[in-house]
Amino acid sequence: MVRIFTPRCEIPMAGHPTIGTAYAILSQSLLAPKSSERLIFDLGVGPLCELSGALRAFRWKGNHQ
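Now predict its structure.
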């Protein structure tokens, strides 16, 4: 689960912190390249995006706005 906080409260979703988390995971090789592993980012609004080790790709799931 990805949790995002402001100085005042926790918020259910924010795009920039979510993309930053995906970048950090990929750039630090925390998800093995060329593996079949996938991470589903479960945010306060539900499972929102997927990170793939094999594709080195990040994609949004669903029609959240």
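The helical segments are 15-27.
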